[in-house]
Amino acid sequence: EPTFLLEGVEYNYEDGTPGLQGVSLGIERGKKVAFLGPNGAGKSTLFLHLNGILRPFRGRIFFQGKEVRYARKELARLRTKVGIVFQNPDRQVVIGHVWEDVSFGPMNLGLSPPEVEGRVEEALKVTGLWDLRDKAVHLLSYGQKKRVALAGILAMRPEVMILDEPTASLDPGQVHSLLELLECLHRQGIQIVLSTHDVDFAYAWADWVVIMHAGRVLAEGLPKEVFSDT
Ligand code: ADP
Ligand code: ADP
């Protein structure tokens, strides 16, 4: 059973801009999947459909074999299983200090304070933010803020993490740490789906690559096949 299955998904933004123009694809369980394509290709729009933030105008989306339903309760369940880390950390990082920020999500799950504390501690350690836990988020670097956003989602213990452009504005050393972090999450059984402009990164990391253009899937396949054609 694939993690996600999309059938003819179409979406237009309110101003009429076509976001997705008929996307059909499967994302196999456990696979590391990278989406590539120019800005405006529809990668973010697609990702926002994967945890029900956006609802298709046409077509259907299945998560773990069940069609996604948009009733409040079912959406809430979907979002505990599928976490999204947005491209711009300022969109996600709320306020205050690192610890406080990362605990926001798990607190909203209604967990007990010791459980929240345990999850936050683990998320901060895995993302290398432990030493920064008492810092004000607005004082952190862009890359550190991105890690705070990721830790916040991680602390919710999703089954799937969707990362929008995690490699954007990272230097090679930071890309290397990101790869290590993703491997660590993979070993924990968390499936990662991400978008990137970094072909070398996608080649090194992904099991499966999807190329998008103008709201459509242009090509998909194994990295070595897809990148040998382009
Ligand atoms: P094979 O017949 O060897 O499975 P494929 O090209 O179909 O050849 O798949 C090769 C690898 O890519 C396999 O590990 C497969 O699980 C993975 N794969 C195939 N399709 C997808 C997909 N839609 N999403 C993620 N991984 C996929
Ligand atoms: P990508 O993530 O691949 O850069 P997006 O999904 O952000 O692509 O964009 C797909 C299309 O939808 C683009 O034409 C983009 O300009 C448009 N778009 C994205 N967000 C909005 C929005 N909030 N309102 C109107 N158009 C949007």
Task: Tell me what the structure shows.
The chain is of the alpha/beta class. It has 8 helices and 10 strands. Strands 6-7-8-3-9-10 form a 6-stranded mixed β-sheet, with helices on both faces. The protein has a 4-stranded antiparallel β-sheet with strand order 2-1-4-5, with helices on one face. Strand 7, helix 6 (172-187) and strand 8 form a beta-alpha-beta unit. Helix 3 runs parallel beside helix 5 and helix 4 crosses helix 5 (142-154). The longest helix is centred in the last third of the chain and has 16 residues, at 172-187. One adenosine-5'-diphosphate binds next to helix 1.
Give the helix/strand layout.
Elements: E1 4-12, E2 18-27, E3 33-36, H1 43-50, E4 58-63, E5 66-67, H2 72-81, E6 82-85, H3 98-108, H4 113-126, H5 142-154, E7 160-164, H6 172-187, E8 191-195, H7 199-205, E9 208-213, E10 216-221, H8 223-228
Parallel strand pairs: 3-8, 3-9, 6-7, 7-8
Antiparallel strand pairs: 1-2, 1-4, 4-5, 9-10
One adenosine-5'-diphosphate is lined by residues 26-28, 31, 33, 207-208, 222.
Subcellular location: Cell membrane
Domain ABC transporter: 4-230
Membrane topology: Peripheral membrane protein
